[in-house]
Write a structure and sequence with these properties.
Layout (H helix, E strand, L loop, with lengths): L1 H27 L16 H10 L4 H7 L14 E2 L9 E2 L4 E2 L1 H13 L3 E7 L4 E6 H17 L7 E5 L4 H13 L2 E4 L6 H11 L3 E5 L2 E3 L2 E3 L1 H12 L5 E5 L14 E3 H6 L9 E2 L5 E6 L5 E6 L2 H15 L6 E4 L6 H13 L3 E6 L10 H9 L3 E4 L1 H10 L4 H4 L8 E4 L6 H10 L3 E4 L1 E2 L6 E4 L16 E2 L5 E4 L13 E6 L9 E2 L3 H9 L5 E10 L5 E6 L3 E4 L2 E4 H8 L5 E11 L3 E10 L7 H15 L8 E4 L13 H8 L16 H12 L17
Parallel strand pairs: 4-17, 6-7, 6-8, 8-11, 11-12, 16-17, 16-18, 18-19, 19-20, 32-33
Antiparallel strand pairs: 1-2, 3-13, 4-5, 9-10, 14-15, 15-26, 21-22, 22-23, 24-25, 25-27, 27-28, 29-30, 31-32
Helix pairs in contact: 2-3, 4-5, 4-6, 4-11, 5-6, 7-8, 10-11, 13-15, 19-20
The structure holds 2-acetamido-2-deoxy-beta-D-glucopyranose (3 copies).
C-alpha cells in the first residue's frame, strides 16, 4: 500500500513536471512542433504490455492482471474461454459474475457521494445541471424499478431514443443494473431507420423523449417514435416518455405510453443484479452494407475491464478527474467515453447537448473546459474542423483558461494533417488520434498518455493497443511485412476483451462479414499500412461504408432509399472527399424514360427521400441525374470509377470489363456541370498498391 502510494506520488509529480517541460519545449524549439513528453514509465512499458497481451502463452496472464480494475461478484476462473471451435466466438471472463452499473456508480458512492458524477450542459438553452453520485444512484436505481414495474426482465431489450439529456444516461445505466440490454439509437435517425432497429431487436420498452434540438430547430422525437413503432409492426412495446420542460408536450397513447416523471415518483429502488461475464450489456446498430442494420452485441465483463484499462492507460483518467466527450450517446464513443468510461473510473463526465460551434459560439468546448476544469477531451476531427473554420487563428481558444486540459483524443475518421496542426498549434497538449470501430469496443490503435507516449506523427494512428495484433494482409490473405505497403487491416484472433460477441440474432452474418474472408483474422474493413517505424496508418474503407462527419453510414442503404422514388430506375451513391465532413455522399440516378423532368424539382425529391429514409445524419445533399451509369459487362456498377470522378481524380485506366466506355466522359461532364468540382486540392501522398 505504502509502496503503491509512493509510486503514485512519483508518477503524479513527474506528470506535472513533464507537462511543464513539454510546454517549454514547444515555445523554445520551434522546430519540434508536436507535443513531446517523457513519461515516468520506461520506453518499453508499451512494448512489454503489447507483447504480453498478444503472445498466446501470456495473453490470459495479461488480462488476469487487469481484473483488479473491476469489482466482481465472482472473479473469473477462466480468463478466456476457448471452447468454441471458432476463435471469433471465444469469450473473456465468461464464468465471472459482475455488474456494469455497480462498477460505474455504486462502488464510488461511499467516497464520492456529494461530488459531481454527471455535469450536464445544454448549449441550445444555455442551461446546466450537476448530478452528484448519490443523486445518480438514486435516479438510476429508481428508473430500474420503473423498468421492472413495466415488465422489463434480464435479457430484454430496451431501446433508448433520446436527445443528450441525463435521463438517457440514467436509462442506459438502469438497464445494466437489472441485466436488460440497451440499444441506443442516435436521435438524428429518421422513423424508417429507427423502425428497422425496433424490428430487429424487438424491445420490451422504448425510453423516449418529447423533443430534442437541432441548430435553430426543435425536433419532435415523439412523433418520429410513434411513426417508427407503427412502421415496425412490432406489438406489445411499452414507451416510457420523458416530457421535457413544460412548454411542449407530446401526445400520450394510453395503455402504451407511461410518463417518466410520474413513474419515477412512485418507483421502488432496485439493486444491481449480478450477470454472467458474457451477458450482453448492449446492442448498438451500425449501418450494414446491405442497408440492413447490424446489431453489434457487446459483453459485460470484457467491457468493464477493457473500458477501465482504456481510461487508465490511454486517457490517464482517474478518480475525481473530469472528462468531456463531445460525442453523442448514440455512438460507440458516447457509450464508452461519455457514460461507462469516466464513471467506471469514478471521474466526472460532462454530458453536452449542443454543437461544437453555434451553441452559442466556437468557444463552447474551451468554455466548458475552463468552467469544469476538464482534464481530457474526446472529440472528432469533423468537430475540430468546424471549430477551426470559425476560429482559424485560435482567438476563441485564447479567451479561456484551458490549463486543466492534458490531452485531446479523437476518432470517427483519420484526422487530416491541417486540422491536426491547427489544434496542436493552439492547444499544446497530447493530440491523440484513435482508430477503432463499434465492432471492437475500444481503441485498436492510438497513443498512450499513461503507458508510453510515442512521438507524434500527424495522420497516423500510432501503435496498436495491447491485445490488438494488427496485421496487413494482401488479397490472397498473405501477410504484408514490408513497411509502407498498403493492404487490408486485419486483426489476428482471438480479439481482446470487449470485442463484439456477435451480430444480434445473426451469428452467420457475423462470421461472413468479419471472419470468413481471412480465416484466423478479424477483417476490419479498412485499408492501411505500417510505416517504417511501425506506426499504423489507416486509409480508405474497402466496402461501401461512408464516413460523413464522423458517422459511418451505408451507401447501399442510400441507394435503396433512392430506388423507392417512382421515377428512378438505377442509383449509385459514392463517397466524395470533403474538406469539412471528411466524406459526403454523392448520388447518381438514372430516371425512367419518357417523362419530362423538372431537374431542380427532381433533385430535390432525391435528397428528400434519403433524408426521409435515413435521416439528416446522412448529409445527402447532392444527386446528379445521368443517362447511364458506368457498369461492367456483367452489370456491376463501377463505383470506384464514379468515386474517382467526384473526387476530380484522373481516370488513368478505364476498367477493362466496362460495358460502355463512352459513359465515363459524359458523367465527367455532368459532374462538372453540376458544379461539384470547384476547388480540388491534392490530398496527402498515399502509398500505392492494388486492393
Ligand atoms: C454528503 O452530504 C450529506 C448531507 O450533507 C452528509 O450527511 C454526508 O456525510 C456527505 N457524504 C460524504 C461522503 O461526504
Ligand atoms: C435525481 O436527481 C435529482 C438531482 O437533480 C434529484 O433532485 C432527484 O431527487 C433524484 N431522484 C429522482 C428519483 O429523480
Ligand atoms: C493546395 O494545398 C497546398 C498545400 O497543402 C496549398 O499551398 C495550396 O494553396 C492549396 N491550393 C488550393 C487551391 O487550395
Amino acid at each position: 500500500m505504502i509502496l503503491l502510494l509512493i509510486i503514485l506520488n512519483i508518477k503524479i509529480s513527474n506528470l506535472q513536471f513533464t507537462k511543464k517541460i513539454a510546454t517549454n519545449q514547444l515555445y523554445q524549439k520551434k522546430t519540434t512542433k508536436y507535443y513531446q513528453t517523457k513519461m515516468s514509465r520506461p520506453n518499453n512499458a508499451y512494448q512489454i504490455a503489447f507483447d504480453k497481451s498478444t503472445n498466446d502463452k501470456t495473453r490470459e496472464d495479461f488480462w488476469r492482471d487487469q481484473t483488479y480494475l473491476v469489482d466482481w461478484y465472482k472473479k473469473p476462473d477462466v480468463i478466456l474461454d476457448r471452447s468454441h471451435p471458432n476463435p471469433g466466438f471465444w469469450r473473456w471472463f465468461k464464468d465471472s459474475r459482475v455488474n456494469m452499473c455497480y462498477n460505474a456508480i455504486d462502488r464510488h458512492v461511499g467516497e464520492l457521494a456529494n461530488k459531481t458524477a454527471i455535469q450536464y450542459v445544454c448549449g441550445y438553452l444555455g442551461t446546466e445541471k450537476a448530478y452528484t453520485w448519490a443523486e445518480l444512484l438514486d435516479n438510476v436505481s429508481r428508473l430500474a424499478g420503473v423498468y421492472r414495474k413495466l415488465g422489463v426482465k434480464k435479457g430484454d431489450r430496451v431501446i433508448i431514443y433520446m436527445p443528450m439529456v441525463p435521463e438517457a444516461v440514467f436509462g442506459m445505466l438502469a438497464c445494466a443494473r437489472i441485466g436488460a440490454i440497451h440499444s441506443v439509437v442516435f436521435g438524428g435517425f429518421a422513423a424508417k431507420e429507427l423502425s428497422g432497429r425496433i424490428q430487429d431487436s424487438k424491445p420490451a420498452l422504448i425510453l423516449g423523449a418529447s423533443y430534442g434540438f437541432e441548430p435553430g430547430k426543435v425536433i419532435n422525437y415523439k412523433q418520429i417514435l410513434d411513426e417508427a413503432i407503427d412502421i415496425s409492426g412490432v406489438d406489445g412495446i411499452k414507451v416510457l416518455l420523458l416530457q421535457r420542460g413544460d412548454k411542449v408536450t407530446a401526445p400520450i397513447k394510453v395503455g402504451r405510453d407511461f410518463d417518466y416523471h410520474s413513474s419515477m415518483l412512485f418507483a421502488e429502488k432496485v439493486d444491481c443484479v449480478p450477470v454472467e461475464g458474457d451477458h450482453p450489456l448492449y446492442i448498438l446498430y451500425t449501418s450494414g452494407t446491405t442497408g440492413q442494420p447490424k446489431g453489434i452485441v457487446r459483453d459485460t465483463a470484457g467491457t468493464c475491464v477493457a473500458t477501465s484499462w482504456t481510461m487508465q492507460h490511454i486517457m490517464d483518467i482517474h478518480k475525481g478527474d473530469v472528462y468531456f466527450s463531445g460525442s453523442d450517446i448514440g455512438w460507440v464513443v458516447g457509450h464508452h467515453f461519455i457514460v461507462y468510461g469516466p464513471l467506471i473510473r469514478g471521474a466526472t463526465t460532462v454530458l453536452y447537448e449542443g454543437k461544437p460551434t453555434g451553441t452559442p459560439d466556437p468557444g463552447q468546448f474551451w468554455r466548458i473546459i475552463e468552467k469544469y476544469r476538464v482534464k481530457g477531451l474526446y472529440t472528432a476531427p469533423t468537430a475540430l474542423r468546424a471549430i477551426r473554420k470559425d476560429d482559424l487563428n485560435g482567438d476563441w481558444i485564447k479567451k479561456f483558461d484551458i490549463s486543466s486540459l492534458q490531452a485531446i483524443s479523437m476518432a470517427g475518421e483519420r484526422c487530416d494533417v491541417p486540422t491536426y496542426e491547427w489544434i496542436q498549434k493552439h492547444v499544446p497538449v497530447l493530440i491523440n488520434d484513435n482508430y477503432w470501430q463499434t465492432e471492437t469496443g475500444w481503441i485498436i490503435s492510438c497513443n498512450y498518455k499513461n503507458l508510453y507516449t510515442h512521438p507524434i506523427k500527424p495522420g497516423s494512428a500510432i501503435k496498436p493497443a495491447p491485445g490488438f495484433d494488427v496485421r496487413i494482409l494482401d488479397q490472397d490473405n498473405k501477410e504484408i511485412t514490408e513497411p509502407n505497403k498498403l493492404g487490408r487491416i486485419c486483426i489476428k484472433l482471438p480479439m481482446p476483451p470487449s470485442f463484439m460477441l456477435t451480430l444480434y440474432n445473426n451469428d452467420e452474418a457475423f462470421i461472413q462479414k468479419y471472419l470468413a474472408e481471412s480465416p484466423g483474422y478479424y477483417l476490419a474493413g479498412d485499408s492501411g499500412y505500417f510505416d517504417d517505424t511501425g506506426y499504423l496508418n489507416v486509409m480508405a474503407r474497402i466496402d461501401d461504408i461512408i464516413n460523413t462527419a464522423g458517422h459511418r453510414l451505408s451507401t447501399a442503404a442510400m441507394e435503396e432509399a433512392l430506388l423507392k422514388h417512382p421515377n428512378i430506375v438505377e442509383a449509385a451513391v459514392v463517397a466524395k472527399v470533403d474538406d469539412f465532413k471528411g466524406e459526403i455522399p454523392i448520388g447518381f440516378v438514372v430516371a425512367k424514360q419518357g417523362g419530362n423532368i423538372n431537374l431542380k424539382q427532381f433533385e430535390k425529391e432525391c435528397t428528400a427521400i434519403v433524408r426521409l429514409e435515413i435521416g439528416p445524419v446522412a448529409s445527402f445533399n447532392n444527386c446528379i441525374l445521368v443517362d447511364k451509369l458506368p457498369k461492367t459487362r456483367s452489370g456491376k456498377i463501377l463505383r470506384q470509377t464514379l468515386k474517382k470522378i467526384v473526387d476530380g481524380e484522373k481516370i488513368e485506366k478505364i476498367p477493362p470489363t466496362i460495358d460502355d466506355a463512352s459513359v465515363i466522359p459524359k458523367i465527367q461532364t455532368d459532374v462538372e456541370n453540376y458544379g461539384l468540382l470547384k476547388k480540388k486540392n491534392a490530398s496527402t501522398q498515399q502509398p500505392t498498391a492494388k486492393l
